[in-house]
From TrEMBL, chain A:
Pfam families: Collectrin
Gene: cltrn
Protein name stated in the entry: Collectrin
Record's keyword annotation contains RNA-binding: no
Bilayer disposition of the protein: Single-pass type I membrane protein
Any one Gene Ontology BP term: positive regulation of amino acid transport
Spans through the membrane: 146-166
TrEMBL record, chain B:
Lineage per the UniProt record: Eukaryota, Metazoa, Chordata, Craniata, Vertebrata
Main subcellular localisation: membrane
PROSITE patterns referenced in this protein's UniProt entry, alphabetically: NA_NEUROTRAN_SYMP_1, NA_NEUROTRAN_SYMP_2, NA_NEUROTRAN_SYMP_3
InterPro entries for this protein: Na/ntran_symport, Neutral_aa_SLC6, SNS_sf
GO biological process, one term: sodium ion transmembrane transport
Gene Ontology terms for molecular function: metal ion binding; symporter activity
Membrane topology annotation: Multi-pass membrane protein
Record-given protein name: Transporter
Region spans: Disordered: 590-612
Family annotation (PANTHER family): INACTIVE SODIUM-DEPENDENT NEUTRAL AMINO ACID TRANSPORTER B(0)AT3, SODIUM/CHLORIDE DEPENDENT TRANSPORTER
């Protein structure tokens, strides 16, 4: 009777250990807590392992939509100081039957983000060997940033070129008016000082400023 | 005598503009990415000896010669050589052709710099990680096989073809960058030296500011001292190798941008009474000092890069060991790595050897040297990723490269524009702005060949074949022309009228003896070395079995014919013009074209008659 009771007590863990150790359906997990968190790294202990098993149970529940998965269905073995171990998942109905590898992999992949966040780790620091991480989607820009910089530069250059060309055109026009003013005065009888004349833009005659038109000042 | 159509020759606003322009022309990309490389491979500090000897006996005399004849004869390269002797008119034509060809590919390099500059504003930098493949299962295979920086350069920038025969298509991204580069050049070049003189205040001084910032930053990086020690530790034994002397001489020659005609053009806009001897010393010494000054931050950063590569190599080994043997995290560190390795090797050697641990040695990382575009776009960009605040350093670096190249482009374009203006090939109705615009548009269209998939290979061809032997030939003809055709006495008289004193014994000895002999030796040695090398080029071929190593391919016949054409076409004008003039001189009676024109009354010149 006592032997029977003892067997009953010790059988499940022994069976569990055998299921985990020799299984083909298990995955090796590796955590690099110190690499990820540095000074704020937490210690790996039984409670953390409890959390891990519960998150995996959660992942299995979500994936199979079967609410009967419990922490006892996640068996762990080969725990090393590296913080790496093997785990297998047993079926909730039949504790000696393992869930196939593909299903476990699917569950992990779908919920990796949640599992990572539970441990404050990332895809690089919480590794499931054999399950490749889903790479995040590349950022798609509406306008690529380099086009924006290019637009700014080319806009500034275009404005500069136009400004320089306009200044040349206006300089040429002013020079032409100066030359026109000079040549008109050559025909006149009085040969005044050319510079004073040219500033008035080639009008006929000399403008006598002593006789100004001050009509406009009398108007209200 | 007509004053209306005689335009006064443009001139510099002040001396500073002239000096900055000459310094900007001489100080270019080569000072940053060629000199440090040569220093590294030729025994560090020991290389300075042949370099300084070449500067004193070859560089400075040729520089003085060019500045003096430009200033005294007051014309661009074609006019100057025609004045010295009509038989030598071809020298000017050759200079102009070379300036044109070099300007084509040099601005393409600036287009690449602009591309990297535009991309430096992204977070994270696009060359720091591999892009994800189409179906999101992993990274792009080509990137994984090489490195993200290599992939970004060869695939995302150049989209290079595996072979020079395969031209690929025009890369619109590069076309856009090339257009921006030419627009920026145009806006500075639009009115010739009027606008160039203002632009150089920025383009010639900004690189020094950035180099100083980099110097301060680089010296605080870990591993900087390793790089500097590696650079400057002299290896005197290498001085026995003639290749070192040859490279020193060619480096000084190309670094000072001699024989392009640009320096002659710049000094032709000087007032007649200007101390060109002092200008020579200023420009020559600043150019070499800049090379030296630039190599310090470059090598500090390369040392930092080597150290971080070494550290990541060791770290990856540590990770492999930790994972394989399930050791507690962080138990194996850099310090105790060696002892752990020996311990693990003694307990389980098979497992250790199955890990294929990398062999990490700091020296091998330091030995990875690069020059040219490899240094700027691969090595340096990789180093910048590791520095905190990468975007800032990347932006500063590429703006510095751009302004270094831009100020050199001014010299190239002036070497084309000034002779054309002097020969009155420009119709008088065409304003200068339109003419410079046409030059830029023409250059842009021809340079589109460098934006093809095979563009980089063509650029390398232009770089090695145009910018080397023809320049040496022209420089040799220049010095022979001045010393023997123009006459040392006449030249010394000109210099006396410009600077107030005759050139001293050192200059005369150099011009008449040392420099021509040195140039001839360098020219012959260079040709001999080039001929012995089989013309091959490194191709980036992802299909190559030893990828990511470059596949060394030989040039096919038609490509090699183009190479030879590029080397000889510029200099062929020298004998052609000489022969043509000789024949004309024989068939025509001597009209006394060298005699003074009796109708030319020099008492009544435009400069003394102030117009209204």
């Amino acid at each position: 009777m006592l032997a029977g009771v003892l067997l009953l007590i010790f059988l499940p863990p022994l069976v569990a250990k055998d299921l985990c150790k020799d299984s083909q359906d298990g995955f090796k997990v590796r955590l690099s807590i110190k690499t990820a968190l540095g000074e704020e790294a937490y210690d790996w202990n039984e409670s953390e392992m409890f959390l891990f098993r519960s998150t995996l149970a959660y992942a299995m529940r979500k994936e199979t939509k079967n609410d009967t998965y419990d922490i006892t269905n996640i068996l762990v073995c080969n725990d090393t100081p590296r913080v790496s171990f093997m785990f297998v998942v047993t079926s909730p109905g039949q504790p000696d039957q393992l869930i196939p590898k593909e299903q476990v992999e699917k569950a992990v992949r779908e919920n990796k983000h949640r599992i990572n966040n539970a441990f404050l780790l990332s895809d690089m620091t919480l590794e499931f060997l054999g399950i490749p991480p889903t790479l995040s989607a590349p950022i798609i820009y509406d306008t690529e940033p380099w086009l924006i910089v290019f637009g700014v530069v080319i806009g500034a250059v275009a404005v500069g070129i136009v400004a320089l060309l306009m200044s040349t055109v206006s300089k040429k026009r002013r020079a032409k008016e100066k030359a026109a003013g000079l040549s008109e005065e050559d025909e006149g009888i009085v040969k005044e000082n050319g510079t004073a004349l040219s500033s008035f833009g080639g009008k006929e005659g000399a403008y006598n400023q002593a006789f100004s038109n001050d009509d406009r000042f009398t108007k209200l | 005598m007509d004053t209306a159509s005689e335009q006064e020759r443009p001139k510099w606003d002040n001396k500073v503009q002239y000096l900055l322009t000459c310094i900007g022309f001489a100080v270019g990309l080569g000072n940053v990415w060629r000199f440090p490389y040569l220093c590294q491979i030729y025994g560090g500090g020991a290389f300075l000896i042949p370099y300084l000897i070449a500067l004193v006996f070859e560089g400075l005399p040729l520089l003085y010669l060019e500045l003096a004849i430009g200033q005294s004869l007051r014309k661009g390269s074609i006019g100057v050589w025609h004045s010295i002797s009509p038989l030598l008119g071809g020298v000017g034509v050759a200079s102009m052709i070379i300036s044109l060809l070099v300007g084509l590919f040099y601005n393409t390099i600036l287009a690449w710099v602009l591309w990297y500059f535009f991309h430096s504003f992204q977070e994270p930098l696009p060359w720091s990680q591999c892009p994800i493949s189409e179906n999101r299962t992993g990274y792009v295979q080509e990137c994984l096989a090489s490195t993200p920086v290599n992939y970004f350069w060869y695939r995302q920038t150049l989209n290079i073809t595996p072979d020079i025969e395969q031209s690929g298509s025009l890369q619109w991204r590069l076309v856009v960058c090339l257009a921006s580069a030419w627009s920026i050049v145009y806006i500075c070049f639009i009115r010739g030296i009027e606008t160039i003189g203002k632009a150089v205040y920025v383009t010639a001084t900004f690189p020094y500011l950035v180099l100083t910032i980099f110097l301060v930053r680089a010296l605080t990086l870990p591993g900087a001292t390793d790089g500097l020690r590696y650079l400057f530790t002299p290896d005197w034994a290498l001085l026995m190798d003639p290749q070192v002397w040859l490279d020193a001489a060619t480096q000084i020659f190309f670094s000072l941008s001699l024989a392009f005609g640009g320096l002659i053009a710049f000094s032709s806009y000087n007032p007649k009474k200007n101390d060109c001897e002092r200008d020579t010393l200023v420009v020559g010494i600043i150019n070499s000092a800049t090379s030296l000054y630039a190599s310090i931050p470059i090598f500090a950063i390369l040392g930092f890069k080597a150290t971080s590569n070494f550290n990541s190599c060791i770290d990856s080994n540590i990770l492999d060991l930790t994972n394989a043997f399930d050791v507690t995290e962080r138990n194996i560190t850099m310090e105790n790595y060696e002892s752990w390795l020996t311990y693990l090797n003694s307990t389980d050697p098979d497992k250790v050897s199955s890990l294929n641990l990398k062999h990490c040695e700091l020296q091998s990382f330091l030995d990875q040297s690069a020059s040219g575009t490899g240094l700027a776009f691969i090595v340096f960009t990789e180093a910048v990723i590791e520095m905190p605040g990468s975007q800032v350093w990347a932006v500063l670096f590429f703006v510095m490269l751009f302004s270094l190249g831009l100020s050199s482009m001014f010299g190239n374009l002036e070497g084309v524009l000034t002779p054309l203006l002097d020969l009155h090939l420009v119709p008088s109705w065409m304003p200068k702005e339109l003419f410079t615009g046409l030059i830029c548009v023409f250059n842009f269209l021809v340079a589109l060949i460098f934006t093809l998939g095979s563009g980089n290979y063509w650029l390398e061809i232009f770089n090695s074949y145009v910018g080397s032997i023809p320049l040496l030939v022209i420089a040799f003809c220049e010095i022979i022309g001045v010393v023997f055709f123009y006459g040392m006495k006449r030249f010394s008289d000109d210099i006396e009228s410009m600077t107030g004193r005759r050139p001293n014994l050192f200059w005369r000895v150099c011009w008449m003896g040392i420099s021509p002999i040195m140039l001839l030796v360098v020219l012959v040695a260079y040709i001999v070395v080039q001929v012995q090398k089989h013309p091959t080029y490194p191709a980036w071929n992802p299909e190559y079995e030893k990828f990511p190593e470059s596949e060394v391919k030989p040039y096919s016949d038609w490509v090699f014919a183009i190479c030879v054409l590029l080397s000889t076409a510029p200099v062929v004008s020298i004998p052609i013009v000489a022969v043509y003039r000789l024949i004309r001189r024989q068939t025509r009676p001597q009209t006394g074209s060298s005699l003074p024109n009796p109708y030319d009354n020099q008492a009544f010149s435009t400069e003394s008659f102030k117009a209204l």
